[in-house]
Amino acid sequence: MTAPPAPHVRSGAIAEVAGAAPLAYRDVALTTRPDRLLQLAVQAGEVVAAIGDENGGVEQLGRLALGLAAPASGTVEVFGLRIAELSYYDLLVFRRRVGYLPQGDGLLQNLSLRDNVALPVRFATDHRLREVDAKVAQLIEDFRLRAIAGLRPAQANEEDRRRAAAARAIALNPKLVVLELPFVGLTGRAAKDLLERLSRTEDGGRRTVLLTSRDLTPSVRELVTRTVRVVDGVAVEDTK
Amino acid sequence: MLRVLINQIRFTALQAIFLVTFLAAILAFLVISQSIRQLGRFGAIDNLGTIMVVAVIRELGPLLTALIVVSRSGTAIAAEMATNRVMGEVTALEAMGIDPYIYLVLPRMLGAIVSVATLMVVFDAVALTSGFVAAATTGMSLNRYTGIVLKTLSAGDVWLTLAKGVFFGAAVALFCSYHGLAVKAGPTEIPQAVTRGVVATIVAIFIMSAVFVVIAS
Questions:
Q1: Complex ipTM, two decimals?
Q2: Domain layout of chain B by residue ranges
Q3: Is the pTM of this model over 0.95?
Q4: All domains in chain A, ordered by first residue
Q5: Cβ–Cβ gap B94/A123 under 8 Å
Q6: Cβ within 8 Å, pair B96-A109
Q7: Residues A125, A136 contacting (CB under 8 angstroms)
């Protein structure tokens, strides 16, 4: 199948800061302790795994990166921009530059898996209907969803739902993807397969990925370029 | 979005037509059959048109139609919005750069406006027909009934009905969506959100009705 044309994503006119890290947390308070501030930068092409438990604050990283929550102190920069300072609509369109796989899956229950995958392409690109269909068909194929694409999320199993949510997360071919606890309930092989697809851009390059997790299976560790352990709101480099 | 709009109209208007028709027929029949006897005793049968137009077409019709829509579709909208919020779907939309108000609320609002306005027209048509049936049981001819009603019914009443359809329909969708999307605690809050949405909509509809009376007079 020939690849459909790259979508022209309507992601606003806000310019990214040249050379800036795709994602950076600077002095961000994840806990109530003022002396424990997070410093973490995810460089272009890196696949960074932030692991930790609930109390450490690791679960906040995804929402902070998307501007869905504002840090109590410090700043979160996405492509060099302080995301919490953008206006509601600027933030909304800016988020189209970042793929996001929320905890669980965040799929819309009244849509089929195919329509869930198609949602960002329909709303955020200038594609015509035929081009949208081609793009969605490609994603469905890539994530091996063809046989179950017509099912509603509640009719699909956890792995299929996660793959559909992952396909949706990269539907606009973002340079940065943020994954919240993406491997919960998946086998090691399924988790590795998912991360492999998510960390590859449409042209075969490496996509920047930040994933949060309680722990990593050895198969996933193979694909991760850097692991940080978030303990009490502070990131500690982990040896691979 | 178009699919949501079409589904909203199908559920809110098409599936409610039977109920609206039934209630309009019963209401108009009762009002006219009661009124015609009292008016006949005082020789004021020509005032039948005033009762039909002022009481049924201008006031009770729009109110009853809106209440039917609130009880069927308003509850559904509030519950659906609250579920979307609880399931993290609203956050997922925001994360994809899709405005949840445009994606979730707008098609429901347009659907409710079209549906309520259409149902009000249906209500009026059925009420006028049913009113004639009630009048005919006392021997009134169609010509006389039509003449009496048309003496009071004006183009302004049609516009008023449509205006009420727009405002009441918007109120149903907006209030119910607002209270549904305001859910924070979890699934146990969904029934409370539905109740809050319905109560707020009913209050708003009655207030708007009063405002329309002031404006129309």
A1: 0.85
A2: 2-216
A3: no
A4: 23-238 (3.40.50.300)
A5: no
A6: no
A7: no
